[in-house]
Amino acid sequence: MATQLHTLSDPRVATALTRMFEGATHDSETATRARAQRSSGYVPATPQEQADAAEEIYMPISADGGKLLYNLVRAIRPAAVIEFGTSFGISTLYLAAAVRDNGAGKVVTTEMSHNKVAAARRTFAETGLEDVVTVLEGDARQTLAGLATPVDFLLLDGWKDLYLPVLQLLEPRLAPGSIVVADDVEFETVQPYLDYVRDTANGYESVTFPVEDGMEISCRL
């Protein structure tokens, strides 16, 4: 009897991940070109301006980071996975694949760049995962404010200085045992968030996992 492949082995998903990881290898060149085009010296300041300036940059998690997310979601079996920072959808594919293989659940993901939202939605349709993913376009502090569902699993992978505000926005919906994962914790701008979740007085038990720029895995106490 043949063994059914898990969703990450689906050729549509594997092809999409390979394509996007390859595109991400040019992120440095793309960022340099985008800066050169801003000849006026204009520097993006607001989150929306930053998102628009980075609309061609993938800014992905690592493949190992993606597999970690997949394994965590498979093990925890969350009903609702919330992601802050879709970009082109690499991390979302790992989350959605896990939800699909669990046989239940949904992924709600947020992105400010209109072009990235459109590209991500095309990818989710091409991979057959669009039915388990909802993309909210706009500032996550606004689009997630009206979220009615409990949050079982939260991935923070958008603008680093917004990790803490987004977490605190969703805290009322985090039940005991919920998992919060923050990517790129070696970035200096993530420090206020780390100070918060590493203080057990704030209701978390937290550990750093050594994947590329680091992932902080925090359990809601």
Per DSSP E runs of 2 or more residues, the count of β-strands stands at 7
The largest sheet has its strands arranged as 3-2-1-4-5-7-6
Quick one: CATH class?
Alpha Beta
Q: Write the CATH homologous superfamily.
A: Vaccinia Virus protein VP39
Question: What is the number of helices?
Answer: 9
Report the CATH topology name.
Answer: Rossmann fold
Backbone shape: globular
Average pLDDT metric: 90
Reported CATH architecture: 3-Layer(aba) Sandwich
Structural class: alpha/beta
In this structure, how is the largest beta sheet organized?
Answer: 7 strands, mixed
Kindly provide the radius of gyration, computed on alpha-carbon positions and rounded to a whole number of angstroms: 17 Å
How many domains comprise the coordinates?
A: 1
**What share of residues is helical?**
40-55%
* Residue share in β-strands: 15-25%
Quick take:
With 221 residues, this protein is an alpha/beta fold. The protein has helices spanning 11-24, 27-37, 47-53, 63-76, 90-102, 114-126, 140-143, 163-170, 191-197, and strands at residues 80-84, 106-111, 133-137, 151-156, 174-183, 204-209, 215-220. The mean pLDDT is 90.
Description:
The chain has 221 residues and is of the alpha/beta class. It has one domain: Vaccinia Virus protein VP39 (Rossmann fold), CATH 3.40.50.150. Helices cover 41% and strands 20% of the residues. The protein has nine helices and seven strands. The protein has helices at 11-24, 27-37, 47-53, 63-76, 90-102, 114-126, 140-143, 163-170, 191-197; strands spanning 80-84, 106-111, 133-137, 151-156, 174-183, 204-209, 215-220. Strands 3-2-1-4-5-7-6 form a seven-stranded mixed beta sheet, with helices on both faces. Strand 1 (80-84), helix 5 (90-102) and strand 2 (106-111) form a beta-alpha-beta unit. Helix 4 runs parallel beside helix 5. The protein is globular and about 50 Å long. 40% of the residues are buried. The model has no long low-confidence stretch (mean pLDDT 90).
